[in-house]
Amino acid sequence: MSFEDELRTTFRRADGSLEREALDWHATINRGRARRMMQFVAMGATVLVLAVAGFAVTRVDLGGGNEPVTPVGPSETTTPTPDAPEVLTPPDDLDRTECSAARRAEPVSAQTLLPEGARRMRADIIEAAWGCDYERLAELTGLQEGEPFSYSLGADGDPAEYWRTLEESVSAGEPVMERLVQVLSLPPAEQRIGATVDGPREDAFVWPRAHGEGEITDEEWAELEGIYEPQLLNDMRENGSYLGYRVAITADGDWLLFTAGD
Amino acid sequence: MRKNQRELEFRDFFVAQSEPLRRFAIFLTGDTDVAADLAQESLARTYQHWGRIKDKDPAPYARRTLVNLVRSEHRRKLVRRKHDESHPGAVAPRSGEVDEWMRVSSALRSLSPIRRAVVVLRFYEDMTEADIARTLDRPIGTVKSDLHRALNALRPLLSEETGKRREEVR
């Protein structure tokens, strides 16, 4: 018997001596979810590194976006979605008295060059936000299915209740649904996640483009002017970082976060 | 992809691959506790990137991730610490096979993690050199070289042990 054959036999014997012991599915999937969550929480830092490489953060040509945007790098994911509507239109029967997003609802670009999963999720979010449909928004987060989703740093509860409280509180009232639609109406940054860890990258889109830790351009600051008060924007600009809301959706259509940057 | 669909798809992969992956990890680390931890971590990372790799063959990705984990300095420290303790996770083979396991495990630990992986994939998982190259994302020439050097290192160790064992039997 050759040494190689002897080695095979030895492995077979050793394998026969091992007891079968199933790995814990729940522990494994929880680790996986946590890794996905951490991946996107850490995006800001990753963006800067990858942007220096001139590849990972790509301004996305949205196909009829609200602002003209010129692609500055390669994009493998921005293929047109056939037969997708060019514009998302608020329904006629919106109650424009109660919901901040409904009060100023107007047609927004469907950003048809987003990958289909991201495009559909974005459209679903906007449609739910126009109606302040908190339950539908909570459903879209996937939290009920145990998926990672971040809506407020340190929060551990029901995002629907959190958003409803922000919207309806007399003292702390914040037009969070309007902000959600406004931010999603801006051009996103495309990000390749995972390039600095191991293995394949995952594409995600983050609105607005100003969310990262890199230097924010004049054009990116200008995009925010219709959303925040000039004084607040000036404060952020002097501070060198965007502290407002941001939304992230993977190319596959998983909604990952809607948080303020503070 | 809907969120629950990702988990449903990954669940099938987990059921099929978790035990082979755990055993692969045992041969790489020589410790069942560390192996289970690393196998679980490689599966978690596979899940993390599932959207991108599910349509390719995700099994090589999971094995490559596992090998990278073993290679990392942090994990090697963990392995050393485990071995320095009272071998709480050491494999408990069935009666009569303890020597077999101990000598293989001991000989494999004399190799670098990447050569250990090449040997285990070739002689335990019966992969071709081309499959090993694909799994570990290394040039096939490097795999051939690693295999050749690993066998040269193992031959005296295992042959010597085999000789001793035969002497003892007599």
Task: Give keywords.
heterodimer; A: 262 residues; alpha+beta; two-stranded antiparallel sheet; 10 helices; elongated; B: 170 residues; mainly alpha; 0% strand; globular
| Class computed from helices, strands and strand pairing of chain A | alpha+beta
Helicity level of chain B = over 70%
Which outline of chain B best applies?
Answer: globular
Q: Assess the beta-strand content of chain A as a share of residues.
A: 5-15%
Kindly report how far apart the N and C termini of chain B lie: 64 Å
Structure, explained:
- The complex is a heterodimer of chains A (262) and B (170).
- Chain A is of the alpha+beta class and 262 residues long.
- Chain A contains ten helices and seven strands.
- Chain A has helices spanning 3-16, 25-41, 43-52, 100-103, 116-130, 134-141, 159-168, 176-184, 218-223, 230-239, and strands at 58-59, 87-88, 108-109, 189-193, 202-207, 245-250, 255-260.
- Chain A has a five-stranded antiparallel sheet with strand order 1-4-5-6-7, sandwiched between helices. A two-stranded antiparallel ribbon of chain A has the order 2-3.
- In chain A, α5 packs antiparallel against α8 and α6 runs antiparallel to α7.
- The relative contact order of chain A is 0.15.
- The model of chain A is unreliable at 42-79 and 194-200 (pLDDT under 50).
- In chain B, α1 (3-29) runs antiparallel to α2 (32-48) and α8 packs across α9.
- The longest helix of chain B has 30 residues, at 140-169.
- The N and C termini of chain B lie far apart (64 Å).
- At the A-B interface, α1 and α2 of A face α1, α2, α3, α4 and α6 of B.
Chart the SSEs and their pairings.
The complex is a heterodimer of chains A (262) and B (170).
Chain A: H1 3-16, H2 25-41, H3 43-52, E1 58-59, E2 87-88, H4 100-103, E3 108-109, H5 116-130, H6 134-141, H7 159-168, H8 176-184, E4 189-193, E5 202-207, H9 218-223, H10 230-239, E6 245-250, E7 255-260
Antiparallel strand pairs in A: 1-4, 2-3, 4-5, 5-6, 6-7
Chain B: H1 3-29, H2 32-48, H3 50-53, H4 58-71, H5 73-84, H6 98-109, H7 113-123, H8 129-136, H9 140-169
Helix pairs in contact in B: 1-2, 1-4, 2-4, 6-9, 7-9, 8-9
